Structures are given as structure tokens and as C-alpha cells.
């Protein structure tokens, strides 16, 4: 598929502003040619001492053409840039809308810095497509054709010279620029992505790099990436400058050609001498309109490369099935059933889940335990439709998740993941992420349930919660989840950073609020699981044991061994 098809479609949506910009550009170009041609004719006429009214008419015409050129050029700039900004806005919205369904899978394939470069840099580069690629040829053709028709009224050979000049400036010069452009195709864009990646990773890992003494090494790597980008940008700028210089040389060469040819025609009596200055001035002006053609190949390849990278990023979105219409209602109890579910991450050698089949009745409390990497978190991601099972199916209230709108699943779920994100702002703003309205009294009561009684709603939260301890982050995430009205609780290690006493208090408040709801808890700790209706023990992507706490302890299997190890560690501590 043509990478620029999305741009063409977006341009069609802005056809009104684009049409006005083209009309304004054409009028400005023709007015400029007429303005300088009239000025040349006026200069020639003054030699012959024409009547005063002739000078008044010509002078007035020059003033009118000057005003017309300025007004039309302003309209052209206004509407062309308005169309460009609208195009960029639509492209950003469209790109982000296609990117959202691909997360979190795309984050495992692309580095966050590179994604940032594509979202910002590549979309920004597409602003040149209309202004520097699609728009100039239209104006050049229209203005040149009108000028050639005007010139042919005075001399056929002069019109042929103008056509030759148009071919040189519109095709030969851009062709020469294109030959050199192939050598540096995409290097600036790739190097910018490398720099964005290095900056992002330096900011995210600053603390660890500082602790392990690797900050200077990473900074040097960042400086090298910055210097490499600067070198590539300078090379690209020099190439554009060579194209512009070549165009200027061709323009002046053609103007000299007009002068020589005009002198020859005047000597032969086929052209009146009074028109020579007019034709020279017209040639100087009309070829200025073709100046953007010299840099068109560079901007065209840059836009194509940016569009290709964006298309590669969201190509999978085009392969997604239509958005399902099924709805999971918030006020209903939710049952879960996994039937033969398997899942394997891309490029992984082994499956994360292997043929998982288990029913979870509505209103039940289920815990999933097991060693790290056994597939516990993957189950929650499948339930939230963040990932799609490789095999098998998942049912929520008897409906396949494939038939349910993911937004309704998220709305009906109270979720606490291992790493919850916090935005820069206040405690209040980070609690009120949903659309529901809550009073300060309700927020404080929920903080109290989450064992954060001494926190003020106006306390500042840094980006990613950098000023909060891990325990505070988990309790704030729990308070945020407890403010929601969903009937499905999906909790992934929600209290792993809390001390035993605080953990038990939070857990009791949580069970009280979720008394009639379906709760699925992932935990490495085995303390407090006595109150669970069912415990699933996983290892290497399989459920190897299932039952109540007492049943599993009586079996003296894998769960029993894990419990003995935990008790031994607590005793040693």
C-alpha cells in the first residue's frame, strides 16, 4: 500500500482550505509576474516620453498588482498553513487511535524512545508533504502555463525558451537533487530516533546509572548520538543548499538567455525593443515560483520515509477485526471461564500459558500463586483483553471476550497491576482518574481504608510517583481501584511492598468491599489466603494444583512446600 495514502486521504478532508490556498498562490504568482513585467514595461516606456496618462495608468497598475500580490500571498499562507495544521492534528489523532489497540504488545517490540520519535518527529515531518511536495508543482504548472501563454503573444521563440526553462527548473534540477538525496535517505530520521531512545533511557534509568557508576558512560553515548544527528542534519542542509544554488544558477542562466534571444529578435525586427525589459523581468519572477521544486525531492523522500515508519508501527491495527459490540455491564456479578487457553509471546521459545481450563464463579474469591514467570500476570492481561490468546477462549458472563468491547471490560473491572502509573499532580487528581464524581470525604475515607490516613489530598505527586515509596504507591493504587464500582477485581501483587500488619488491614477492608464481587488475586505471599474460596497453583504456564487452603495443605504437594519455605523464612527473620 502506498505509504502516503493516509496523507492523500487527510488532504481530501481539508480540500476547502487547500483549494483556497491554491487559488491564492496562483493569483500571487501571476500578480508577481505581471507586477515585474509591468515595471519593466514602464521603465522602457519612460525612454520614449509617453503621455502622462500612460504613466499614470502603468504606475497605478503596478500599485494595484503589488497590493493584490500581498493580499493573495497572505491568503495563500493563511489557508495553506491552516490546512497543514489540521492535517497534522488529524494524523496525530488517527495514529494514536491506531496505536492504542496495539499496546502493550507494541511496547515489547519497539523501544519507548523510538515510539516517541515516531509519534512526534515523524508526524511533524509530514507537515512538509503538502507545503513542500504536493502544493508547489500545482502552482508552478499553473503560473508557468499562464506566463507562457502571455509570452507567446509577443514571441513564439521566447515562449519556447520559457518552456525550456520550466523543464530545466521543474525536472532537471530536482532530478539532480534526487540523485544525491538517495545517499542520505532516512539517515536523519533514524539518527533522531536513536537520540530520542538514548534520552528516554537516560531519564528513566538516571538513578540506577548513578548508583552503578555508569552515568558518565551513558552521557558519552548520548553526546555521540547527538553529534551524529547534528552531522546528518548538516549534510542534509548542505544538500538542500546545493539544490537551491543550482536552481538560482539555472534561473539566471535562462534570464541571460532571454536577454540574448530578445536582442537577436529585436535586431531581426520580430520583437519590439520596448518589450525586452518586460520579458526579462517576467522571466526573473516566474522562475522564482519554481524555487521550491529544487528541494521537493528531499522533502518528498523525507515525508515518504516518515509515513513508512508510521505505517510500519500501526500496520497491525489494520489487521485487527472490527470493534465488537458486546457489553459487560458494571452492575452485574461477573463469572469467568477459561477453556483450553494457551498464549505465547512473540519471539519467545516457550508458551507463557499451556492449555489453561478453569471456571471462576461470580462472587467467588480466587488466588493464583506460583513462582515468577509461571504465567499469572498473563492471565489478567488476557482477561483485560490487553493480549489475545493463542488458543482457546475466555468467557465473561458466558460471552467470549472477543465479542465484548474492551472498554466495557475495563469499566467493569477494578484493576491493580504490579506497576501502576501515577501522573504529576496531586493525590486528589491521581485518585479521580475515572469519570465518576467523588467528594473529598469519600476520597479521604478510601485513603483510610487503604491505610493512608495521614495523606492530604493536596499533597504533590511527582511523575511516575517518584516521591512515593513502593508501599505508598500500592496503597494509593488500591484506593484508586476501591473508588470504582466494577464487580470484577483483578489484583496483581497489590500488597507485596507492605508489612504484614498493614497488608492484613488493607486486605480485610478490600474483602469487605468486594464481598459480593468476583475477585482474582495474584500473590507470591501465601499468608492470608485462608479466606480465599479457591487457590490455583501455577508453574511453567500450567495449573498444577487447585483447591481451598486447607485442601492444599492436606495434599502436602507443591503449595504445601511453598508454605513451609515461607514459614521457614519468616522464622529466620
UniProtKB/TrEMBL annotation:
It comes from the Bacteria. One of its GO terms (molecular function) is ATP hydrolysis activity. Pfam families: ABC_membrane (PF00664), ABC_tran (PF00005). InterPro entries: AAA+_ATPase (IPR003593), ABC1_TM_dom (IPR011527), ABC1_TM_sf (IPR036640), ABC_CydC/D (IPR014223), ABC_transporter-like_ATP-bd (IPR003439), P-loop_NTPase (IPR027417), Type_1_exporter (IPR039421). Residues 336-565 form the ABC transporter domain. The chain crosses the membrane at residues 18-42, 48-68, 129-150, 156-180, 246-266. GO terms for biological process: cell redox homeostasis; glutathione transmembrane transport. Keywords: ATP-binding, Cell membrane, Membrane, Nucleotide-binding, Transmembrane, Transmembrane helix, Transport. It is found in: Cell membrane. It is a multi-pass membrane protein. GO terms for cellular component: plasma membrane. This is ATP-binding cassette, subfamily C, CydC. It comes from Paenibacillus tianmuensis. The lineage of its organism: Bacteria, Bacillati, Bacillota, Bacilli, Bacillales.
Amino acid at each position: 500500500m502506498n505509504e502516503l495514502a493516509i496523507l492523500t486521504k487527510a488532504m481530501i478532508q481539508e480540500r476547502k482550505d487547500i483549494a483556497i490556498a491554491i487559488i491564492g498562490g496562483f493569483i500571487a504568482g501571476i500578480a508577481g509576474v505581471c507586477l515585474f513585467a509591468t515595471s519593466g514595461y514602464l521603465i522602457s516606456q519612460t525612454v520614449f516620453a509617453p503621455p502622462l496618462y500612460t504613466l499614470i495608468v502603468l504606475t497605478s497598475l503596478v500599485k494595484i498588482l503589488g497590493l493584490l500580490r500581498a493580499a493573495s500571498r497572505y491568503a495563500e499562507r493563511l489557508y495553506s498553513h491552516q490546512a497543514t495544521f489540521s492535517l497534522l492534528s488529524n494524523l496525530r489523532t488517527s495514529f494514536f487511535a491506531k496505536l492504542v489497540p496495539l499496546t502493550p504488545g507494541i511496547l515489547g517490540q519497539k523501544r519507548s524512545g523510538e515510539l516517541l520519535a515516531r509519534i512526534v518527529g515523524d508526524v511533524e515531518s509530514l507537515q512538509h508533504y503538502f507545503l513542500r511536495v504536493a502544493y508547489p508543482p500545482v502552482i508552478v504548472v499553473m503560473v508557468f502555463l499562464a506566463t507562457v501563454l502571455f509570452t507567446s503573444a509577443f514571441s513564439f521563440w521566447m515562449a519556447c525558451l520559457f518552456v525550456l526553462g520550466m523543464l530545466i527548473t521543474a525536472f532537471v534540477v530536482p532530478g539532480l537533487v534526487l540523485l544525491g538525496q538517495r545517499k542520505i535517505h532516512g539517515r536523519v530520521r533514524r539518527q533522531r530516533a536513536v537520540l530520542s531512545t538514548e534520552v528516554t533511557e537516560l531519564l528513566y534509568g538516571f538513578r540506577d546509572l548513578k548508583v552503578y557508576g555508569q552515568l558518565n558512560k551513558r552521557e558519552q553515548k548520548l553526546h555521540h548520538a547527538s553529534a551524529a544527528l547534528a552531522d546528518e542534519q548538516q549534510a542534509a542542509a548542505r544538500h538542500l543548499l546545493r539544490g537551491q544554488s543550482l536552481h538560482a544558477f539555472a534561473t539566471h542562466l535562462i534570464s541571460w538567455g532571454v536577454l540574448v534571444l530578445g536582442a537577436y529578435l529585436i535586431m531581426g525586427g520580430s520583437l519590439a525593443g520596448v518589450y525586452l525589459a518586460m520579458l526579462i523581468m517576467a522571466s526573473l519572477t516566474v522562475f522564482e515560483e519554481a524555487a521550491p521544486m529544487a528541494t521537493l525531492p528531499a522533502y518528498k523522500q523525507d515525508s515518504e520515509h516518515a509515513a513508512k515508519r508510521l505505517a510500519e508501527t500501526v500496520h497491525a491495527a489494520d489487521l485487527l477485526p472490527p470493534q465488537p459490540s458486546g457489553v459487560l455491564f458494571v452492575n452485574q456479578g461477573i463469572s469467568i471461564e477459561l477453556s483450553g487457553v494457551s498464549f505465547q509471546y512473540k519471539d519467545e521459545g516457550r508458551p507463557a500459558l499451556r492449555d489453561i481450563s478453569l471456571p471462576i464463579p461470580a462472587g467467588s474469591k480466587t488466588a493464583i500463586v506460583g513462582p515468577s514467570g509461571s504465567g499469572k500476570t498473563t492471565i489478567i492481561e488476557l482477561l483485560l483483553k490487553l493480549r489475545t490468546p493463542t488458543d482457546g477462549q475466555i468467557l465473561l458472563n458466558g460471552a467470549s471476550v472477543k465479542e465484548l468491547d474492551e472498554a466495557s471490560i475495563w469499566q467493569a473491572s477494578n484493576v491493580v497491576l504490579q506497576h501502576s502509573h501515577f501522573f504529576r499532580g496531586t493525590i486528589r487528581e491521581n485518585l479521580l482518574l475515572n469519570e465518576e464524581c467523588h467528594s473529598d470525604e469519600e476520597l479521604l475515607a478510601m485513603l483510610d481504608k487503604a491505610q493512608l490516613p495521614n495523606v492530604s489530598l493536596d499533597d504533590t505527586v511527582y511523575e511516575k510517583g517518584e516521591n512515593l515509596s513502593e508501599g505508598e504507591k500500592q496503597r494509593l493504587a488500591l484506593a484508586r481501584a476501591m473508588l470504582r464500582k466494577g464487580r470484577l477485581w483483578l489484583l496483581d501483587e497489590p500488597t507485596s511492598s507492605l508489612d504484614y500488619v498493614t497488608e492484613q488491614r488493607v486486605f480485610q477492608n478490600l474483602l469487605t468491599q468486594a464481598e459480593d464481587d468476583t475477585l482474582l488475586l495474584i500473590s507470591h505471599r501465601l499468608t492470608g489466603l485462608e479466606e480465599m474460596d479457591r487457590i490455583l497453583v501455577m508453574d511453567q504456564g500450567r495449573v498444577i494444583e487447585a483447591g481451598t487452603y486447607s485442601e492444599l495443605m492436606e495434599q502436602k504437594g507443591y503449595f504445601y512446600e511453598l508454605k513451609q519455605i515461607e514459614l521457614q523464612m519468616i522464622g529466620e527473620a
